């Protein structure tokens, strides 16, 4: 069973290690997201003066930089966490279902640029790949999401702008990188076949989410 009423960042880190996979926001399966599992005091709140606070949102950076899980848009294009124990199987399966980007494609250019630069926020990566014209942002974001779903790009950390008092503000930007660079090549290798990884993932999600339908589970596995 997945525990509820998470009150702190360390508790959420421990939960991710325990269950292996956790979407950040609504997953379509009741009770299965960090947003639903945290205590009310950790959820999004707007103050009368227009300010806001969202502890859960602020925990993303420390959880990712802690180095014990991977973060990206892995769940039907939505963001979430995957523990390092389960990452090789997810990576193995997803990459087997999607061929490496073709030579000369936008996806290849994105991966090449990250390989050269190490890590970039989306805006910098978009400019480096030449997506600077009108209406290019949403198209480029689509490429990034697909590459994350294929386990070829992950989030290394989050970068926030600073105000005149040198304080961070806003929603922050994902600092994107290649998993091989951040985790090491061995973390992206799996001793099982893609079919074996699929069976292992399906059995895990079926046990973890006994009330979810097979369609919902297959959607999570991707």
Class per helix and strand makeup: alpha+beta
The low-confidence runs, each spanning 5 or more residues with pLDDT under 50, are: none
Q: Please state the overall shape, judged from the principal axes of the Cα atoms.
A: globular
Number of helices: 10
How do the SSEs run, as a string of H and E? HEHEEHEEHHEHHEEHHH
Strand proportion: 15-25%
Task: Compute the number of strand runs.
Answer: 8
Notes on the structure:
The structure is a single chain. By secondary structure, the protein is α+β, with helices and mostly antiparallel strands. Helix content is 44%, strand content 15%. The chain has ten helices and eight strands. It has helices spanning 9-19, 34-37, 55-65, 87-97, 106-117, 122-128, 136-149, 179-183, 194-208, 214-221; strands at 21-23, 45-46, 52-53, 69-75, 78-83, 119-121, 154-159, 173-177. Strand 4 (69-75) and strand 5 (78-83) form a beta hairpin. Helix 1 crosses helix 3 (55-65) and helix 4 packs across helix 9 (194-208). The longest helix is centred in the C-terminal third of the chain and has 15 residues, at 194-208.
List the helices and strands and how they pair.
Blueprint: H1 9-19, E1 21-23, H2 34-37, E2 45-46, E3 52-53, H3 55-65, E4 69-75, E5 78-83, H4 87-97, H5 106-117, E6 119-121, H6 122-128, H7 136-149, E7 154-159, E8 173-177, H8 179-183, H9 194-208, H10 214-221
Antiparallel strand pairs: 1-5, 2-3, 4-5, 6-8, 7-8
